[in-house]
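User: I'm new to structure prediction. If I give you an amino acid sequence, what do you actually give back? Let's try with this one:
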Amino acid sequence: ISHTCRMHAELLKENIHQMTDKHLAFSIYTIYDNSIELDDHFYNTILPIVKEFLKNMNREHNTAFAQIVQYMGWMEVQDEGLWRLVEQKLVGEKLYRYIPLRELCKIIDAVATAQQGSEELFNTFERVLIKQRLNLEPNDIIFARDGFEARKVGSQLLFGVFEDPLKGLPEGQASVEQLRINSSGNPEARKF
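Assistant: Good question. You get back a string of structure tokens that encode the predicted 3D arrangement of the chain. For your 192 residues, that looks like this:
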């Protein structure tokens, strides 16, 4: 395992032609997981490689894309071009539609941790969370709420959803969902 950004940069450069999106995501994860200091090798070699890969990612790469964005955010990478590209992919190309809700909630937290994300991006996140409220798990809510609170954005309705995902649903739908949860005793029953 590489323990410096220089070692990671060399590995990525040497293997760039056979590297997949998953290899790149794992490399970024390793840097994140080992709390490796982000030095000039990161910003001058690794980051340009990441941006080049991100440019070419589409819905077929949703897992690696989500992971890379999460780790970049949680490492608080400050690069305007990176975050502009992330927003272009998520909002402009609507990649958010292909990312599982659980991973999207982590992206919300990560983007906020890096103090990034436009109003348009967070409005998009909010619409998805409200629409998908019945699929939110407790950990998803924690990640999403932390992100919205950190960026000081989000409507009263959204924070109501964080408190109680059934709140604000049309009467019939809320009672059907409550009945489904109560009758099974299993909140997993919310998933159809």
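You can read the tokens as a compact description of the fold. Here is one thing that stands out. The two ends are 42 Å apart (CA to CA).
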